[in-house]
Every structure is written in structure tokens, then in C-alpha cells.
Design a protein that fits this description.
- The structure holds three protein chains of three kinds.
- Helix content of chain A is 22%, strand content 17%.
- By secondary structure, chain A is an alpha/beta fold.
- In chain A, strands 1, 2, 6, 7, 8, 9 and 19 form a seven-stranded mixed beta sheet that branches.
- Chain A starts with 5 loop residues before the first strand and ends in a 6-residue tail after the last helix.
- By secondary structure, chain B is mainly α.
- Chain B has two domains: 1-33; 41-168, no CATH class.
- Chain B has helices spanning 3-32, 41-54, 68-76, 84-102, 111-122, 135-152, 164-168.
- The termini of chain B are far apart.
- By secondary structure, chain C is mainly alpha-helical.
- Among the domains of chain C are: 37-98, no CATH class; 117-193, no CATH class.
- Chain C has helices at 2-34, 48-55, 64-68, 75-90, 102-115, 117-125, 132-136, 139-144, 151-154, 163-166, 260-268, 309-312, 344-347; strands at residues 167-168, 177-178, 227-230, 235-238, 248-249, 252-253.
- In chain C, a hairpin with an 8-residue loop joins strand 1 (167-168) and strand 2.
- In chain C, helix 5 crosses helix 6 (117-125).
- Chain C is elongated and about 110 Å long.
- Chain C starts with a helix and ends in a 12-residue tail after the last helix.
- Classes of the chains: A alpha/beta, B mainly alpha, C mainly alpha.
- Chains in contact: A-B, A-C, B-C.
- The B-C interface holds B 10-11, 13-15, 17-18, 20-22, 26, 28-30, 32-33, 74, 154-156, 162-163, 167, 172-174, 176-182, 184 and C 23-24, 27-28, 30-31, 43-45, 89-90, 92, 96, 144-145, 150-151, 228, 230, 232-235, 237, 241-243, 245, 266-273, 275, 279-282.
């Protein structure tokens, strides 16, 4: 298929790609935005737990589907598993316009200044690839602000003394707590912690023409039926499309980056919605397909000029894959603490994000989102029966008496946790699939244990009568929906994949704008940072372009 | 002529014509018809007994009554088509092992005996070629998970009849929630 | 001449073939049209359970076609659909979750009204007969709240399209347009929104409405004439299986009628997520009328309640208030007599009627 050449191709309409497409198209550049899925309708999955992004046992209603997609996961014992998107080892992110921002829990964190300077703060860690970002919090601050206002965040820093400095408050007031969160807030105050209502990419009041959240039971893992949850699909992508300069091509799979006879990147090859191959030429190509898929695309684009894949001269593409371990404690209370006032997760503390004695990094702690009944059937104290009479009685006696405190722990990155290309398995389109392997750094065990202890203490103060806890460290690849780090940015081309503006070191016109850029992944949900990086990368390209730089 | 007669004569002609041609189409239908989509009748009975072990009936309905077997049967020709062989092999294994251990079918054992058998299965303690490679444990975990999905998941997939598990957990279903109202 | 004879030879077999086909098809259709469902429609097992339920329902004496029409009722669309189903079936891909599309729902509804003329007339006279254009092109609403998926839970629950396909643009500035013109005048709450036809139950029995205060208590609940259509699951939930509303007036739980029909009403006329009384579209009676079912005052089809006060109250109360002229409308939030939450003390402050209070 012949397509007219455009200024920019953006691969992936998620948190990063949606923002970049908006920044460039509104600056007057012509953009084609590729997305492997389509627009999501709430009608497609509603509040069905068995199709939700976090528990898609019967197939993920927001994609990717089980029919066409595969990945390979290498377990620590060396065993090799071909996995479906509905299985946990796949480490899925919704494949649709807006991607994870359609189905996320919408926590809207700014990383803290220390998160950009992990090596300076904690020094070298043997066996790890810990490093500072080439940009600081101050560099990114204005872009966080743009993300907060253009996409829409509710929250207030006044109760969080650890919040990084900001120039402008968020556009919406914070959410109110439900019964469980109120209980935990009061307990945290008694412990001398600093609880606050966490920032959310969700409308607490009408904003951006979209209504306020009406506090349903289901939220994380589901599309929002009223559009109160802000993603790129209902904010920046419509702006990009309305600019007249952006064409969104849904159900298209980009298979390869085109390198011409001079070693220059000239566009992408893809399969369209009818699975017919096509090419799209462009001056600039921007990858924002998620940490796993962006790396896969680079590694699959082999040529005489890039025999190991684009940007992979020093074997850094796909390395440093990071997610988050979720240390947690679960507590049962004497009285019912569940009031069905959704969607849960609202009270958080940042008292343990950094400067914990003997611990590298840390993370926030918060109450979790409401667990739906099937998910709750997997929540039991160690040693408890997982079936039978006892299990059923536990289910009905404790569903309304349980609280879960957890948080994402900032993992120390390592070189061996990675994605590469599986030599055998191919997807429906014949494209070799991603292979995930490696394990989280051992240093993380101490940190996660520390966090789980704090979670336990908090629940105890809140009045829990039985508590159990876990470090949340997976016995294998840690990626999940917070996957990051596979094309880290840096000043030295020998130890990074892109420069500080997301440009692949060895090319003038190929950029990355998603979580792959993260050098380290913070002790926070990464969505707002990915959006801010979208504004950062997109803003840089647009201003250079308008100065006459053609990235040749 | 009595209209009743007229009708029956016409019906006779119709039946004759139908049997000549039309029935060949329906032969396919009647042949394919079964109470279950994947399970055989006896497999379904065994599944019902397993379901009542995983989620036993008490003040609230058990796995069998809530449609666990129906859910699994339905998924086995859909998203869980990849588990068809596992179920066929696993259910046969349970049948065979019970024959050896108890000289009886699983369904005929009393409740506690059934429980004991499943505990052996869960711990990977069944013997015989049928269970090589810890297949007893794998299969137990599989139908345990699927039973939980059936009982506690959305009723639209064939389990959780009348949304019974949501009622048991005192969860409104459908959720009672009104639209946003703004004061202007 | 030779040509003619060749044609002549062909004509007779063609005519015979034609006659055979016509006779076979005609008689087949005649049979199909008159035999019992178990021998015809429901011999496709995809709909067996539906037919079995109908056999135990109040509408047990009706043939399928009385509501659903025949295979030819809506022309090519029907034939194409059935042809596709047969093809899928023969290829072993039977879809047991067969649903009526919106056009078919409306066709069934037209057939309902052949018998239920009174109910239809009442429905037409009330708010529940609103059309798509009345609801979705309401400027005042659309300017304050962007249309979203959830609108379709209570209006247009049978729509084959999602909100974005149905109407545009999805913003608060408009101008809004229903994308498919033919939808504009369709009703958003057809009979099947609250009624399930394939439903276990005995033939119809009316509750005793002679004492409206007791109407909710003498309802025969094992004959649920009302069933809520849940768009999420694309299925009806009999009213008696719907959850009871828990609603809070500050920290006090409000006494809510257990009338199954009211459970159906509150699915849409619902409070906010915290279940605070009087929020969102909650009109659960509090005050003097607390515990009443909606149906104690409202006609279920027209929703009309105008005559209902006089059933219990004398036209002129003891304190000389004329109840027939009082502004009891829920629409007027300022009205002191809003019957949904008027309480004794609203008029009888300090135990005395308002008109005898000292200024």
C-alpha cells in the first residue's frame, strides 16, 4: 500500500504516544499515529472481572487477544514457556487507543527529585545498573505540570510534606476517602506518618468537558463508563485528531523500522487492519509501544547498518527491564470496613520513599483498590485452605472486613532482566515475539521486607486483628503494567540507548517516548511520568522542527 | 368437509414432503445435540461432584447449583479450548484412581472421602502413570481456579447463577448508582 | 425448428421442477408456520432453553411468531440472519448467546401492544415513552454532562451501538446529532426494558390496588411481572432477584419498601455512590411517606400520581390545606410539600400547624 510521506510516524497510542502525537500535530507537523488495537467501548467488557486487564482469564477485552499474540517467558529455573496475553507471565498492557491509560488505576504521581538521581543518592550497587537520569526533576517539572493540566489530575500536596516542589497546584481538588481509607488515614496520623489523598488522573469535579467520577466499585482494569478517568484516548488524542494534522490508524501492527541504502531511517513497515502489508514513510519515527514492544521493534529491525537491531550496538536495547515489586500486608478487622464506595485506593503515605536506613530506594504505601470476588478468592493468610467449606466461609465473613496496604517498590535495575527476540515463536503476522528473562536484583528483598513491615504496622494501628504480609517480589521477570527501562536515556552512548531527548544515539531521526526511557522507575506508578516524557520529547522535536532542524 | 380433516390431510402431505427433504438438514441438529457442549454426561456428573467439593453447599448454594460445570463446559469450547485434553485426561484419571483406591466412583464416595481424595490430589500424592509429572496437582489447581471463576465471576459466562455469590457477599448487583447531578 | 423443439423439451422439466419446488417449499413453510415450537423453531437447540421457559410462562399460549414474526417478517435482513446462523451451526460454531437486536426488540414491542393497548396508552402518556431525540439531544443536559456509555444503562439499553456510534460529538459544546436518523424516534425505554416475556410464572394476577397503602405488601412476589434489563449482561434480572436499596438519610438508614417493583425502579432512579438519600435521582420516600413503594402512588406505566393523594388524604386537611392544589412536585426542590420527603415537622413546627405559628 502506498501512503503519502508524512513528517512523523508515532508507533503506539498510549500514555507516551498519544501525548507526542498531540504535541507534534498541534505544532503543525503531519503525523500518522499507529495503534495495534481499536477504540474501546465500555459495552465490550463492562464490569466483568474475568475480562478485566488485571484478571483477563477469559481474554482481555481491551486487547491484546489470545488468538494472535504470544510472548515467551523464561523462568528462573531455565524453563521456557510460550504465554498467551490472558496469562500473567505475558505482562500485558491493554492494546487499544489510549492503551493502559484506559484501564489503569489512574494514580498520577510525579517522581521525586531523588528518583532521577539514584546513583548520586545511594552510590553504586554491585550487580546492578543503577544510574542517574540525564535529566533532573527540575527539567521535567514544567512537563509534569502540562500533563496535570492538559490531561487532568485531582489532588493536593498540602498534606504531603515529601511532595516534590511545584509551581502550580493541580486543576482539581483531591478525592474523599471511603470508610476503610478514613480508618487508615486516622491510624497513619496516630503513627506520626503523613497521610493524604493520592493524586489521580480522574475527575473529582467535571473537568475537560468530562463528568466527575461517581465512585463505582470497578475502576482499575476497566474502562470508565462515564469517562471520568482521564487517559490519552479522551484528552490529547482527540485534540491531535481535531488539529487536522494527525491521522490515527487503528488495528495496525508495525513490524519493522525501514532503513534505506544509506543507513537512514525512512519510515515503518506495518500490517493494516486487513493484515495487508504497507509502508509509511516519514521524516521522523517515534516509538511509544511500551517497554517490551518498543524494544522488540528495535531488535526486530535488523539491517546491514544495524545487524543487532537499531540502537543495539552495545547490547543495551531490552536490558534493565523493570517493573515494581508490590510489598504488602493484608489485615482483617473485627467490624465491617467495606462501604462499597469505590473505587478504593485513596489514602497514601510517602514517608518511606527515600532515606530509609540501610535501604536503597523505597516507595509509597496506600490502601488498594476494591478487590472483586474472584480476585478475593485468591486472598488468604498463609496456610489457609484455598477451597472447600473453610474457604467459602472465609470469603463471606471477610470480604467486607479486609484491608490491603501495599505500594510499588522502586526496583534496583539489573542488566540481565531483559527482553530479547525469541528465535522460534512468531505472532499471527509472522513477526518474531518478545522473550522475557531474568530476575529482579537481590538488593530489593531487604527493601520490600522493610516496606511490608511498615504496611503491617499501619494495619495494626488501624485495628486489624489478623495480619499477614509478603514482599511481593516475583520469582521471575518483573515487568507488568509498570514495565520500563528497556531503552534507557543517558549521556554516554556506550551505556544507554537514547540521548536525554529520547533520540536513539546512533540515528538522527528515531525517537523513543514511553516508559522504555526510564533509567530507574521510581517508587510510584509511572503513567504521569511517561506522559510528562511525551511532552518533553514531543516539545523538543516540535521546537527544533519549527527552528528548521529536519533531523537529518 | 370438516376443516379439521382438511387440515390433517394437508399436514400429512406436508409431513411427507418434509421427511423427503427437510429432515436431512435436521439430522445434523439431532446428532449434535447433547446436554453438554464438551463434557460427556458422566464427566458432567463428576464435575458437579468436584464443584461441590471446591465450593460446598451450605446456607448458600454450592458449586454444582451455581452452574460451575456449565461455566467450565462453556469455556472449554471458547477461551479454554486449550484445556480440553487436560480435562478429558484429568477426569478420566480421577475415575480410574477412585476405582483403584475405593472400588467406587468419585460421586459415590461420601463427602469427607471425596475431600480426602482431593487433598491427596492437591498435594500431588496420587500415584500411577496417569498422574506422571505432578499432573494431579496441576489438574487440581486448574479446576479449582476455574470453579472459583465460575462461582465468583460474572454470571454472563454460565456460572454464578442468579448472581448468588454477589448476594452472599452482600454486593448489590447490578450496582445501584445514579447519574451525576450538578447544581447549577 | 430444431431449436424450438429443444426449448420445448426443456420447458416441461423446468415447469415440473418449479412446481415441485413451490409445493415442497410452500408446504414446508406451511408446516413450519403452524407446528408447535418444539418441532420447529426450537429444534435449533440454541434457543431450546428460551422455548422451555416460555412454556412455563404467562405467555405460554402464544406461538413464537405472534411476537417475533416469521422468517419473512423483516425481509432480507431476517433471511440473511437465519442463513448465517444455519451456516455457523453446520460449521459447528453455534452461538448460544443469541440476542435480539434493537429492531427486533421494537418489533416484539409492537406485537405486545396488539394485546396490551391500555398499558401502551398509559406508557405513551408518561415520561418513560421518551424517544432517543428527547433524551440524547437535550441541550441543557448535554451542556452540563458529557454523554457517556453509562447513559445507555437506563436509556437506550437495547441499542446495538455504543454511545460514540450513536451520537456525536461526545463533548459539552455540541451541536449534537444522532448519527443514524432512523433511531431518533425510537423509544429509549421499550416494554422489554422492564418486562421479560420468557419468564417463569403463572398467568397474570393483579395485586389488590384498592388500598394503595397496602399495594406493595399484597403483591404476589413469585409472579414477578417486572424484570430489569441489564445492558451489561444483556439479560433480564427478575425484580425479586434485584438488590434491596440501602439508603442513608445522614447517618440514619431509611426504611425502604421491599416491593420488587420498586427494586426495578431504583435501578435507574438511584442515589449517588454513597447512597445518600435525595442525591442523584433518588426519590425514596422519607418523612411521612417513608416505607412506601413507588407503586403506592405511581401508575407503573404512565407514572402518573395525580389522583393518588386523595386516596388516603381528605381533600382539605385538618389545618385547612387543600391537598389537591399543593405543589408536591419532585421537580421543584423548593417545594415544602414534596411528597417524597415531606415530614410532619415541615408543617407542624413545635407540634403546631404552620398557619397557627406566631410570626
Amino acid at each position: 500500500m502506498e501512503n503519502q510521506k508524512v513528517n512523523v510516524v508515532v508507533v503506539g497510542a498510549g500514555a507516551g504516544g498519544g501525548v507526542v502525537a498531540k504535541e507534534l500535530s498541534t505544532a503543525g507537523m503531519s503525523v500518522v499515529l499507529f495503534e495495534q488495537g481499536g477504540w474501546i467501548s465500555y459495552d465490550d467488557h463492562t464490569d466483568d472481572e474475568l475480562h478485566s486487564e488485571r484478571n483477563p482469564v477469559l481474554g482481555n477485552s481491551c486487547g491484546p487477544d489470545d488468538k494472535r499474540y504470544r510472548r515467551v517467558n523464561i523462568h528462573p529455573d531455565g524453563s521456557r514457556h510460550v504465554v498467551l496475553p490472558s496469562e500473567g507471565d505475558y505482562n500485558n498492557i491493554s492494546a487499544c487507543v489510549g492503551s493502559g491509560t484506559v484501564t489503569y488505576g489512574a494514580l498520577a504521581w510525579r517522581y521525586m527529585p531523588e528518583d532521577f538521581k539514584m546513583k548520586t543518592t545511594y552510590g553504586d550497587v554491585p550487580g546492578s545498573t543503577i544510574a542517574d537520569w540525564p535529566i533532573s526533576y527540575d527539567d521535567l517539572e514544567p512537563y509534569y505540570e502540562k500533563a496535570e493540566w492538559e490531561i487532568g489530575v485531582a489532588g493536593d500536596d498540602r498534606l504531603n510534606p515529601f511532595a516534590p516542589p511545584r509551581k502550580k497546584p493541580r486543576p482539581m481538588p483531591p478525592f474523599t476517602h471511603n470508610k476503610e481509607a478514613t480508618l487508615l488515614r486516622d491510624a497513619a496520623i496516630r503513627l506520626g506518618y503523613h497521610p493524604f489523598s493520592m493524586p489521580m488522573l480522574r475527575n473529582s469535579i467535571p473537568y475537560g468537558g468530562r463528568p466527575a467520577c461517581y465512585r463505582m466499585r470497578t475502576c482499575i482494569g476497566y474502562a470508565c463508563p462515564v469517562g471520568a478517568k482521564a487517559g490519552t484516548h479522551n484528552t490529547v488524542i482527540p485534540v491531535a485528531l481535531n488539529s487536522g494534522n494527525c491521522e490515527l490508524r487503528t488495528h495496525c501492527i508495525v513490524s519493522e523500522i525501514i532503513v534505506n541504502g544509506q543507513g537512514k531511517i525512512t519510515g515503518v513497515r506495518y500490517f493494516d487492519q486487513n493484515n495487508k502489508p504497507g509502508t509509511q514513510l516519514a521524516d521522523i519515527v517515534i516509538l511509544s509501544a511500551s517497554a517490551i514492544e518498543t524494544a522488540r521493534l528495535l531488535l526486530n529491525s535488523k539491517s546491514a547498518f544495524f545487524p543487532k537491531g537499531i540502537g543495539n550496538e552495545n547490547d543495551w536495547v531490552g536490558r534493565n527491564l523493570q517493573g515494581h515489586a508490590y510489598p504488602h500486608a493484608t489485615g482483617l478487622f473485627k467490624e465491617e470496613i467495606y462501604d462499597d464506595f469505590g473505587p478504593g485506593s485513596s489514602v497514601g503515605i510517602c514517608d518511606f520513599n527515600h532515606h530509609n536506613p540501610g535501604i536503597i530506594g523505597g516507595g509509597y504505601l496506600a490502601n488498594s483498590f476494591i478487590r472483586m470476588p474472584y480476585s478475593f478468592a485468591g486472598v488468604r493468610p498463609p496456610g489457609a485452605k484455598m477451597w472447600g467449606k473453610e474457604h467459602k466461609i472465609f470469603q463471606r465473613e471477610n470480604f467486607r472486613r479486609m484491608a490491603d496496604v501495599h505500594g510499588p517498590f522502586q526496583e534496583i535495575p539489573n542488566f540481565s532482566q531483559r527482553i530479547d527476540i525469541d528465535p522460534e515463536v512468531k505472532d499471527f503476522w509472522g513477526i518474531p515475539v518478545a522473550r522475557l528473562s531474568g530476575k529482579t536484583h537481590e538488593e530489593n528483598v531487604a527493601g520490600c521486607t522493610f516496606m511490608a513491615d511498615k504496611a503491617e504496622l499501619w494495619l495494626k494501628e488501624a485495628g486489624a486483628i489478623k495480619i499477614w504480609k509478603g514482599s511481593g517480589i516475583s520469582n521471575g521477570v518483573s515487568a507488568g503494567q509498570h514495565q520500563a527501562g528497556t531503552c534507557r536515556m543517558g549521556n554516554d552512548p556506550k551505556t544507554s540507548v537514547t540521548d536525554k531527548f529520547g533520540r536513539i544515539h546512533s540515528t538522527p531521526n528515531l525517537f523513543v517516548a514511553d516508559g522504555s526511557l526510564h533509567v530507574t522507575n521510581g517508587g510510584f506508578n509511572p503513567a504521569l511520568t511517561i506522559m510528562a516524557l511525551g511532552f518533553w520529547v514531543g516539545g523538543h522535536i516540535a521546537s527544533e522542527w519549527n527552528k528548521g532542524n529536519r533531523f537529518k | 368437509m370438516n376443516p379439521q380433516n382438511k387440515l390433517s390431510r394437508r399436514r400429512f402431505v406436508q409431513m411427507a414432503v418434509l421427511s423427503a427433504g427437510g429432515l436431512s438438514v435436521f439430522a445434523r441438529c439431532t446428532k449434535a445435540y447433547s446436554d453438554w457442549r464438551f463434557f460427556t454426561g458422566s464427566e458432567a456428573k463428576l464435575m458437579d461432584a468436584l464443584a461441590d467439593q471446591i465450593i460446598p453447599p451450605d446456607d448458600w448454594p454450592g458449586g454444582k447449583e451455581s452452574g460451575v460445570t456449565n461455566f467450565i463446559d462453556k469455556q472449554l469450547i471458547g477461551p479454554y479450548i486449550r484445556f480440553q485434553d487436560t480435562y478429558r485426561k484429568g477426569l478420566n484419571g480421577i475415575r480410574e484412581s477412585c476405582k483403584v483406591l475405593y472400588q467406587n466412583s468419585f460421586e459415590s464416595l461420601d463427602f469427607d472421602e471425596q475431600t480426602h481424595f482431593l487433598e491427596l490430589m492437591e498435594d500431588g500424592k496420587l500415584t500411577g502413570d496417569l498422574w506422571a509429572g505432578n499432573f494431579d496437582r496441576t489438574f487440581f489447581k486448574l479446576f479449582r481456579d476455574h470453579s472459583m471463576q465460575a462461582y465468583y465471576g460474572s454470571s454472563r459466562h454460565g456460572g454464578n447463577k442468579d448472581n448468588i455469590s454477589y448476594k452472599m457477599l452482600k454486593l448489590d448487583y447490578p450496582l445501584i448508582i445514579g447519574q451525576n447531578r450538578y447544581q447549577n | 425448428m430444431r431449436q424450438h423443439s429443444k426449448l420445448h423439451k426443456l420447458i416441461i422439466p423446468v415447469i415440473i421442477l418449479f412446481l415441485v419446488v413451490i409445493t415442497a417449499f410452500g408446504s414446508f413453510y406451511g408446516y413450519w408456520d403452524s407446528a408447535s415450537p418444539s418441532k420447529t423453531c426450537s429444534s435449533c437447540h440454541e434457543i431450546t432453553s428460551s422455548v422451555e421457559i416460555l412454556a412455563e410462562s404467562p405467555h405460554r399460549n402464544l406461538a413464537c411468531k405472534e411476537c417475533h414474526g416469521t422468517a419473512f417478517s423483516n425481509g432480507m435482513h431476517s433471511l440473511k440472519e437465519k442463513g448465517k446462523m444455519i451456516f455457523e451451526h453446520i460449521n459447528g460454531r453455534s452461538d448460544e448467546d443469541i440476542r435480539l437486536n434493537e429492531a427486533q426488540i421494537l418489533e416484539v414491542m409492537n406485537n405486545c401492544t396488539r394485546c396490551h393497548k391500555t398499558e401502551q396508552a398509559r406508557w405513551l402518556s408518561g415520561g418513560h415513552s421518551a424517544r432517543y431525540k428527547d433524551i440524547f439531544l437535550n441541550e441543557k443536559h448535554n451542556k452540563t454532562e458529557q454523554l457517556n456509555f453509562d447513559c445507555l444503562r437506563c436509556h437506550g439499553m437495547f441499542s446495538d451501538l455504543n454511545i460514540g456510534e450513536l451520537i456525536g460529538p461526545l463533548n459539552t459544546s455540541g451541536p449534537w446529532k444522532i448519527k443514524i436518523n432512523s433511531t431518533e424516534s425510537n423509544p429509549v425505554i421499550p416494554c422489554l426494558a422492564c418486562h421479560q416475556i420468557h419468564l417463569l410464572g403463572s398467568t397474570h394476577q393483579n395485586p389488590d390496588y384498592s388500598n394503595p397503602q397496602n399495594a406493595s405488601y399484597n403483591r404476589i412476589t413469585h409472579n414477578p411481572v417486572v424484570s430489569f434489563y441489564n445492558r451489561h449482561d444483556k439479560t433480564h434480572i427478575p425484580a425479586e432477584n434485584l438488590p434491596l436499596l440501602e439508603v442513608w438519610d445522614c447517618n440514619r438508614p431509611v426504611n425502604v419498601s421491599s416491593d420488587p417493583i420498586m427494586r426495578n425502579c431504583i435501578q435507574c432512579h438511584a442515589p449517588n455512590g454513597k447512597h445518600e438519600a435525595g442525591t442523584s435521582d433518588d426519590r425514596t420516600p422519607r418523612g411521612v411517606h417513608e416505607g412506601f413503594s413507588c407503586t403506592a402512588c405511581h401508575d407503573p406505566h404512565s407514572n402518573d400520581a395525580r389522583q393518588s393523594c386523595a386516596k388516603c388524604h381528605p381533600a382539605v386537611s385538618h389545618c385547612k390545606l387543600d391537598v389537591t392544589t399543593m405543589n408536591t412536585s419532585y421537580k421543584d426542590r423548593q417545594s415544602p410539600h414534596n411528597i417524597h420527603w415531606v415530614s410532619c415537622t415541615d408543617c407542624h413546627i413545635n407540634g403546631r400547624p404552620l398557619n397557627r405559628q406566631k410570626r
